[in-house]
Amino acid sequence: MSISAKDISELRKATGAGMMNCKEALKESGGDFEGALDYLRKKGQKVAAKRADRDATEGVVVALVNEAGDSGLLMALSCETDFVAKNDDFIAMANEIAQLAADNQVQTKEELAALPYKDATVGEKLVEQTGIIGEKIEVSDFQTVKGEKVASYIHAGSKIGVLVSYKDGGKEDAPQFFRTVAMHIAAMKPSILRPEEFDEEFVAKETEALRAQIIAENEINERENLGKPQKNVPKYASKRQLTPEVMAQAEEDIKAELKAEGKPEKIWDKIIPGKLERFVADNTLLDTERCLMSQLFALDDTKTVEAAVEAFSPEAEIVEFKRVAVG
């Protein structure tokens, strides 16, 4: 049968499918528009099933903050190739779906997938697009944040997005400052706010792994005569483990070391604080890797993030953050 250019154009406008796919769908449905839509959806389901185990490691991240500035969302729409991720239609779809989520105040990927979108639901439309594009298309991550104030940041290329819920401390330039905190989070990948949030069992396993890693590095350095200074092998990995008893023992060990070195006792008070500071630094490596407040601030590495916030305003506070990335 003859398929008109007008019918093909209308189907393309409704689905975003290519001209040949639309022509094929209309032929298979005998020119029936609804039948053609159903054909494209079923084709998408077949392709989606075949590509279900593929890695969708490209895509875009969208960050939206509401007009009041007290609520925001992050959404990652993922695909398989950078070519598709940079496509204007794909980017437009990501922004439309994110805005739909914001307008309906959804909180989960499941709620988002069920929202009506064009002539289907979001979930159905993504399956349809999988068939049209020939790549796995999915909302791979969806996060929301609420608070007194929310700052957002999208890293170049829209591959990483961050939201920070904060208290501004009464400072007018707080939006700019906390945007720099969001930039830090994008770059340094913290996973939690403070060491107290770590699971005890996780810390114990990470401590053993960290010790084994440093011991191995020291052995390689010595065996291959690389000339690098030997690293201190820590007993601990997080401030969570540095109880008052541990710190008291560390001070006693330092005093014993100073005595063995023949250092006059009258100068110990000048030496001990620096050695205790070094002990803490050596035994909190997990914190500096994973905890936002323990990391050195990317925009001023003379301070931790915690110290940078305190210096900005003693009343300011980071309440929560979310980081979403593709790739």
Listing every helix as H and every strand as E from the N terminus to the C terminus, the arrangement reads HHHEEHHHEEHEEEHHHHHEEHE
Gap between N and C termini? 45 Å
Number of strands: 10
Q: What share of residues are in beta strands?
A: 15-25%
In the CATH hierarchy, what is the class of the largest domain? Answer: Alpha Beta
**Architecture per CATH nomenclature, i.e. the level-2 architecture of the largest domain:** 2-Layer Sandwich
Mean pLDDT: 92
Which blocks of ≥5 consecutive residues have pLDDT under 50? none
The assigned structural class equals alpha+beta
Major pleated sheet: 3 strands, antiparallel
Number of helices: 13
Instruction: Give the CATH superfamily of the largest domain.
Output: Elongation factor Ts, dimerisation domain
